[in-house]
Amino acid sequence: DLHCVLLLFLQYQKQHRCGTTLIHKKWLLTAAHCFNSPTEWAVSLGSVLRSGLGALVIPIQRVIIHPAFNGTNMDHDVALVELAVPAPVSYTIQLVCLPSPAHLFLENSECYITGWGSMKEGGSLTNLLQKAAVNIIDQEDCQLSYGNVLTPSMMCAGFMAGGRDTCLGDSGGPLTCRHHSGPWFIAGVTSWGHGCGRTGFPGVYTRVTSVRKWISTHLPF
C-alpha cells in the first residue's frame, strides 16, 4: 500500500526519534525540531531507516536545518537529511513526489498521515505503522484555533471535530495527498499541535510548497 511505503523513521542511540520521508535516493525530508544536534547525527552509525515491512541501517552524512527555523513558534520546522549511501528503492521503500511551489492542495484532496507515533494522547509508541485519512483544513478556520501562532509556512490537516490526528513520535513524517491524475505528493511535514485529536485543534504541518525553493537549493532538482 502506497501510504505504507513512503514513511521511514530516524533512530538515534536505538531510540525512535522521528518520522521522515524519502524524496530522493539520498535525501530525506523531516522536521527540524527532531534534532538536538545535527553534528551528532552526522557521525552516528545507528541511524535507521525503517519501512512498513522491514528495516535497514543507513548512516547519515549530514543534516541541513532550514535557516529560518524558529524553535519557539516552530516556523519553518523542516530539515533535509543526506544519506551516506543511496537508499535501496524497492516495493517497501519508495519516493514521494515533491510539489512545485505553486501546487495547490485543496480541501477535498485525498490525504493521509502516517507514522509509528502514539495512537492517543499520553499513549506509547506503536510497533505497527499506522495511517489515517485526513482533510486539509482551511487556513482561516485553523487560524481561529491557533491565532497568530499559525504562520503562512504552516498548514493544518485533520478534523475540527478531533479524533484523528498525528501524535507524539509522528513528528517529521509526511502528510501526503493524491493528485487527481494519480501521483502522491508530500503536502506537509508533521510539526506540532495542541494535544492529539482534540476538538478544535487539528494537527499543524510545515507547508512543503513554502519551503520548496529552499529544498531546490540543496537537491539536484
TrEMBL record:
- Give this protein's Gene Ontology molecular function annotations: serine-type endopeptidase activity
Q: What biological process terms from GO does the record include?
A: proteolysis
- Gene3D superfamilies this protein is in? Trypsin-like serine proteases
One Pfam family, short name: Trypsin
Tell me the InterPro entries matching this sequence: Peptidase_S1_PA (IPR009003), Peptidase_S1_PA_chymotrypsin (IPR043504), Peptidase_S1A (IPR001314), Trypsin_dom (IPR001254), TRYPSIN_HIS (IPR018114), TRYPSIN_SER (IPR033116)
Please indicate if the UniProt record lists ATP-binding as a keyword.
Answer: no
Q: Which UniProt keywords apply?
A: Disulfide bond, Hydrolase, Protease, Serine protease
Segments forming domain Peptidase S1: 1-220
What PANTHER family does the record point to?
ACROSIN-RELATED, HYALIN
The protein's name is Peptidase S1 domain-containing protein
